[in-house]
Design brief:
Bound molecules: zinc ion
Oligomer: single chain
Distance between the termini: 79 Å
Helix content: 25-40%
Largest sheet: 9 strands, mixed
Amino acid sequence: MAVKKESRYFDAKENMGLTKKQGYYNQSLAKMVRLGYQKSSRVKKIFDERNVKPTEIKFLKDLEKLPVISREELVKLEKEEYPFGGFCAKDMKTDRIFTSPGPVYEPHLTEKDPIWGRGYYAAGFRKEDVVLNAFSYHMVAAGLTFHSGLRRVGATVIPSGASSTENQVQLIRDLGATAYTGTPSFLMAIIKKAEEMGYDFKNNFKIRRASFVAEPLQPSLREKFEKEYGIDTYQMYGATEVGDIAYECSQKNGWHICEEVIAEIVDPTTGKQVGPGELGEVVVTRLNHIFFLFRFGTGDLSRYIKERCPCGRTSYRLAGISGRVGEATKVRGMFIAPSQLKLVSSRFGELKLQVLVDRVDFKDYLTIRIEAGVEDQARLEREFENVFKEICTVKMDKLEFIQKGTLSDKDSLIVDRRTWK
Ligand SMILES: [Zn+2]
């Protein structure tokens, strides 16, 4: 009997040619706009107030005609019109309704939606796996939607939720769990508890794979999981209001944007899409026919990676999350976030640095102060500017060397000295 070769992808959408994919996106968007305008009182109101006709939203760029809706705004709109702010059809049928702080009420999407399935598939989760799902199942979307994703790839789920670490260790041991999904810090707490209980986590247990979400994965922690505990780790990214947005593949270099969402990168002050490679807010529209929330502003900063990934998926990738909108500073129209500066610093062996932003002759002027001994200065003068430009996408004006020990951890990474009088 011929053995069916396992697909490298969750479905054929993932490696669809770019032109075809563009067509798929445009069609799905037009359909959601048409339905939304017809069924959702809120969407109709938003369009009519702006004098936008549903037929005018055909391409990704057209979304700029609509407002970005932040979480705070969504809370406000839902309060005006319970339970879903008018974003759903009056006769909408859904099997359950989730809540999240605010409160925000979210209808569950249909079972057909592959929510989180792509991320788990790319992380190698399969039907042979027994997965500990350490996300809460109580009221919030997390537990049950991750559960759905795991079921979509055929895995067996242990709905361990928010049980104690001791309980989780017991489940891993007794049920022979092979994989974990939850936050990275909670997995580390479980490992520590197991060690406290006298187990050798790597050799006594079978956990070989983990998919993390809802918390950043520090590179040092990732290395620890992979090298010390033999756990292959992956990251996924999403928001409770829109579900999964992006996920890592085996290349572990950027997050592939899911085919169910349109993820724009926009200037948070104007809502306009930024240029290629620029940092901006991740704004998401989930293509569906239940909850017509267009342009949800996540408040997270990222940028696109448009180069084709060696894994063969054709989607653009997000280059991780560079921080929250409020933390970043705009210099010559580009955002600089503390996390980008930390990345620059790590390229030079945790170099201590600080960015000063001034206004000289009506232009932004960028000075980077770095702590360096005389022996390193020549090398840094050669290499620093390029690395800074590569990561921050802004050109610096001046490099200033300062004595070692000048900067403390309490000093801000970015000091904005501009006055606008
Ligand atoms: Zn890839």
